User: Fold Carboxyvinyl-carboxyphosphonate phosphorylmutase from Penicillium canariense.
Amino acid sequence: MPLVSGATNLRKALEDPNGFVSAPGVYDGLSARMALAAGFDALYMTGAGTAASVHGQADLGICTLNDMRANAEMIANLSPSTPLIADADTGYGGPIMVARTTEQYARAGVAGFHIEDQVQTKRCGHLGGKQLVDTSTYITRIRAAVQARQRLDNDIVVIARTDALQSLGYEESVARLRAARDAGADVGFLEGISSREMAAQAVRDLAPWPLLLNMVEHGSTPAISAGEAKALGFRMIIFPFATIGPALTAMREGLETLRRTGLPGLDPSLTPQMLFRVCGLDESVRLDAEAGGGAFEGGVDLQKE
Assistant:
């Protein structure tokens, strides 16, 4: 059977009145593998996580289109039918660059991406002091993405994000999202929702347009579970820190143990083979055998003396 792309699967989920997409944030191949093994049927490539893992830098607009596209392409192609939603920041320039971003993301296998209305020197949505472009510039970005998708005849989903809530207030934010919807965006994304009441109001005010909820724990938005988000009427929820948060904690604790005791103190189950199996070792062994190769004829298990 022909492979169904992640973009097509994401669009089908949005067309289903009862569909709901819950995507944990991933930032590299290992975190993506772990999320897939846990049974999630969609992933979210976090821009903050990409900046941290690729550059060791804060989410301050440091990542380029090439950084983001390369990371997204690697993650998306671990499981091409699984939708990958990716951060695309501001689109990385004017209409020509936004169109290029759309084309590169689509060809990389990304299922959906969000573009925001911050200035080029953007920052994480859960930091203060964000600066915005005017509505006309923002809508030009959205229109450029939609038109590029149409030229490609691709199912990639265009998500319009606004960061206007912090400085311009709720009404202006909703007005920007309505304009983005009218320009052809498939999904809306109100960043920095500060209460459950505001979340419910946004769904009502923009219905029946699908909305995405960004669930950054301990940020601007109160803790809302996937089930609660669905009950409120959201069609998508992303958890940007779902893997990088636990990884940060585990690495800090492991390195402190190593410095203190001289050994990392790993759980006995954390063997090299376990890591490699998470990353597709068994699939590689099977592929080699089916092609008639002999690379693994002696097996991969350590021989016991």
